[in-house]
Design goal:
The protein is an alpha/beta fold. Helix content is about 35%, strand content about 15%. It contains 10 helices and 9 strands. The strands form 3 sheets. It has a 5-stranded parallel beta sheet, sandwiched between helices. The longest helix is centred in the middle third of the chain and has 23 residues. The protein binds flavin mononucleotide.
Amino acid sequence: MNTYSNIKIAYYSGTGGTELAAKSFQNCLETEGCVCTIEKIASGINPNQSDHDLLLLLFPVHAFNAPEPVYRWIDSLEIENHISAAVISVSGAGEVCPNTACRVSSIKRLTKKGYDVIYEKMIIMPSNFFVKTPSLLSYMLMQVLPKAVKQISSDLQAGVCITGKPLWVDRIFSLMGKLETSGGHHWGKRIKVLDHCTKCGWCAKHCPAGNITMKDEKPAFADRCHFCLKCIYGCPSKALQPGSCKFVIIQEGYSLREIAEQRPQNLLIPVKDLKVGFYWQGVKEYLFSLSGDQSSHSDSNKHD
Ligand SMILES: Cc1cc2nc3c(=O)[nH]c(=O)nc-3n(C[C@H](O)[C@H](O)[C@H](O)COP(=O)(O)O)c2cc1C
């Protein structure tokens, strides 16, 4: 029998990875007979106060922490009386140093709002920041997403409790990560519009921060940017460019739809045979944990 029947799924997403995970949870839990309400966290939208016996909160890891709108959303929740909650972070590198404390602050704030956070876990999606996830790993991450979601859903319905073990050094990293909020506001103001902008307004329509308006038929940027990168990667004519810190952008662009289209169906690569660099060890461990591959997985640490 299911432990939870009425589940509220709330998620923040920039470039779509967390949204894919949230929709996969909805699909999986509804198939198991649960009633799910799904809510997108975005600026200017207050939490929907629907009844639920489990809150499933998902967010992308931003600078070893949660993005600012997630905190604003939690702060505007009504006080609840011991409702269960699960916090799922979605990252590019996995449950490794310096990411292990990324859920600490959101869990503290949910607890203050009367939630009992009984479960926390990391899901990995192809990275949209700084370093491009190698193609093979990206394909494999997309392939295992439904399995990761199924495993977490089964844990929750079986009443399994999991709490993280954040490293003390990562608690410091995650506090430093809060600086990203003001850095992001500043960064967003300096986004450049290139001459070949078609004035289509896609960026203004899709910005989750409501930070972009069309002024004189050109995108104009205010100071509320969440640093989610949706506008830069999503612009249909690739006409937006960072005004500073260009190195954080993946030069080839980032599109989960393209990764999904290019992914060979049913990849059957034993995780133990993957040759990955040090940076991707967390991804390899995550894939291994979902693969059912029982052979050694620490014997191939060569660089790409
Ligand atoms: C500003 C910013 C900071 C990020 N910081 C981290 C990080 O500290 N650790 C990590 O593993 N991934 C980091 N990422 C990568 C994202 O967590 C990852 O790509 C995630 O899947 C993005 O989710 P989304 O597509 O729902 O926005 C960062 C991404 C951005 C845009």
